[in-house]
Design goal:
The protein is α/β, with parallel strands linked by helices and 156 residues long. The protein is built from 5 helices and 6 strands; from the N terminus they run H-E-H-E-E-E-H-E-H-E-H.
Length: 156
């Protein structure tokens, strides 16, 4: 967690593909040893299938973040350029945000279309580091109060 503090971040979401236990494990260690110095929000990344009109079934990455009090904040991670048009018609009240920036996927994301979809559906725009290595932590980050995540997850 030294890297998180070094980069000036107050908190971090920890997700893994198809594995909730990893984020909860890191949260437990941080809470026990760092006395709340860093907020850790556990979650996971899953595939969600949607029925598209042009290509039939397509998959997107959905991230679920687990906030205290059994509140789940969901966002679409790195929507691909070719999927964003079809994804627009599939967004419902269970989705609270959409990723706009991700250093691993920026080249395949259509920022203008993502902004348009976010505005249409009142989604929070997110910039995430998608860190697979310590050096990636904080490449992109969000300046947001945790209360905003709660408010969006509860309002829909």
């Amino acid at each position: 967690m030294a890297v998180v503090k070094e980069r000036g971040l107050d908190g971090i979401a920890i997700t893994e593909h198809y594995n909730k236990a990893f984020g909860y494990g890191v949260k437990g260690i941080v809470d026990q040893h760092l006395n709340g110095e860093i907020i850790v929000i556990p979650g996971w990344e899953i595939d969600k299938a949607f029925q598209g009109t042009e290509r039939g079934l397509f998959h997107v990455h959905m991230v679920e973040l687990y906030l205290p009090g059994d509140i789940t904040f969901r966002f679409i991670a790195h929507p691909l350029h070719g999927q964003i048009n079809e994804l627009d018609s599939q967004i419902d009240d269970s989705i609270h945000g959409i990723e706009l920036k991700n250093p691993n996927h920026d080249y395949e994301m259509d920022g203008a279309k993502i902004r348009e979809v976010a505005e249409k559906h009142d989604l929070l725009l997110l910039a995430n580091s998608d860190a697979h290595f310590l050096s990636d932590i904080g490449k992109h980050y969000n300046e947001i109060e945790i209360e905003e995540l709660y408010a969006r997850a509860r309002s829909k």
